[in-house]
Amino acid sequence: MSKHITSNAVSNASGNEPFSSILEKTLSRRTLARGGLGAALAVLSGVSLSACGGGGDDDTPTPDPKLTLGFQSLPVSMTDGCVVPAGYIAHVLAPWGTPFDDNAAPWDRGGNNSSNDLLHSAGMHHDGMHYFPLEGSSTEGLLAINYEYIDEKALHPNGPTTVDGKRPAEEVRKEINAHGAGVIHIRKADGKWNVVKNSRYNRRFTSATPMSLAGPLRGTASVITPYSPNGTLVRGTNNNCGNGFTPWGTYLTAEENWYACFVNKAPAADRPKSQVRMEIPSTSGRYKWETAAGDATEVQGEFARFDITPTGADATQDWRNEANAFGYLVEIDPYDPTSIATKRTALGRFSHEGANYANPVAGKPLAFYSGDDKRFEYIYRFVSEAVWDPSDANRTNRLAVGAKYMDKGTLYVARFGADGSGEWLPLNESAKGKDGRTLLEEFGSLEAILLNTRGAADFVGATPMDRPEWTMTHPVNGDVYVTLTNNTSRNAAAGTNAPNPRLNNANGHIVRWHDEPNSNKFRWDIFVFGSSAGAAADVNRSGLTAANQFASPDGLGIDPRGIMWILTDNGIDGGRNNDVAKTTNDQILAVIPGALADSTGVGPAINKDNQSDLRRFFVGPNEAEITGFAFTPDLKSVFVNIQHPVNWPAYDTEDATKANAGDKVRPRSSTVVIQKADGSAIGV
Ligand code: FEO
Ligand code: CA
Ligand code: CA
Predict the structure, then answer these.
(1) Where do runs of H (alpha helix) occur along 152-204?
(2) Could you tell me the superkingdom of the organism this chain comes from (predicted)?
């Protein structure tokens, strides 16, 4: 997520208990390869990779007790380049504006590409992604990727314009098409990954692409619009941040800061609680897309739909319900170019950061986890009604499999105890709130509960967290990790709670839990606290040093061997406003976590005695967040995303013979592929 579109307002008023690279010279301003600062290659103490429940899938990887990190911790960096350890190489893949097919003109460094170009090109501000192999290949596959939001100044030649109070239709369409997600066929040749242009797999999903609604809200009165009078379709997915994927080979894209694209100008008293709790604006949308309504070229209210103020006789006469079809996890089948993206409403409606599933067990329900990235919001779990059939992993009707496991089930929200215990609280009609009344009595229907998922979580007494971002399951031991990126609004009045124990949490931390089998109970501890190296002991509770100080953990990956990769987004409060951000650009760190089963108390698991096991692996360009984490099955190629760089990648600006030598560049968010120069698996 971006520092540019994040709202720091707090809408939770529940009163719940406070608790050497070869980055291509033509694309990169500077390429650095450093080894150097020597964090010792210490073997982790207390590493236990023995399975402790949760596993069971036939593909469960075999842990290697001798697993160690094979690189030394990088120093900090503040440069317009990407830094990788000695022996590693990296190159740029499919930056914003890269054509997917011949319908798009090449990216124009003057910002003059059309909306149609964007419909057939890589979108803007790359975020979550996943690699789907073709025929199991680690050199050819499909990269599903999110394009979270836009930098309007970079997107247009001279930034966004407004004429007589209206945004020009073509500019709005271009912005809409720069959002969303994509599927790109990619192939490796001579060590370098490239887009397979014109592949039948290449697709763009924008904020206007028709999508299907599935689950409890499908066909209900709440999602009827002039575009879909039977409430089954909607146009577009918005502000797709983190991602997930499923055991049956589909991609999940998470709608995070979608709410700000809409506006409801009705008096406060007339606005539904679900809209107020989601902070849908009351004066104008973020990009004022609604102001293009009435343009002579407008098709089926394509712009008017962003103004959800009730003006007509019913929901078929205005766009009052348009926003009710946003705020979900959206399932995409990357292997079937004819399939329709499908919004899975049973998993709740909020600012979904991403999603991940618990290790599947044959004959048991599946569980998915998702954080709601907002200050003092919650962590959710969805448990399927259907039990896992491992043969579903290999079916070709993947969206039907998705319907089987994701359209019927129970949504829960987490309540953490102070003693390392925890409980998942159900959010269904019969569940009881803090006052003893049922959710049905309070909300009237499951449809209303899901529409106002945050309100339902308030009602049952969930634990307000410090901005839950990515969740990730350890593939061997089943522990689940969540990044809590930061929360400087956690002041004395708000108070702390056990899993969020620091006031003015400018650095963030990572919490993990382990669900007890067949139960709504879990155990938890704190894995690591972000901090600058020089902070007081009460802040630097994990004893971080110059070699691994970090803040604002966001993206998270755990590869099949059990190496955890922590990605940071530290543009806190709109700038370099903590000591880590004043010291280094955003980064990736790696560590091999032991199991929660070995934990005593509530952590932190990483402390002054073992903190050198946490190592800095990558540092990105100035002002960029590092996000998205994907890898090939052979672990020889890792894909990460550079989002919102300020002056990267450069193109010819270092060539003194070029007219634009030394210029600032029009920055391009991009995927970066990291490999080892010797072609072996990364990390070890
Ligand atoms: Fe889009 Fe919460 O990061
Ligand atoms: Ca994020
Ligand atoms: Ca973030």
Answers:
(1) 152-155, 169-178
(2) Bacteria
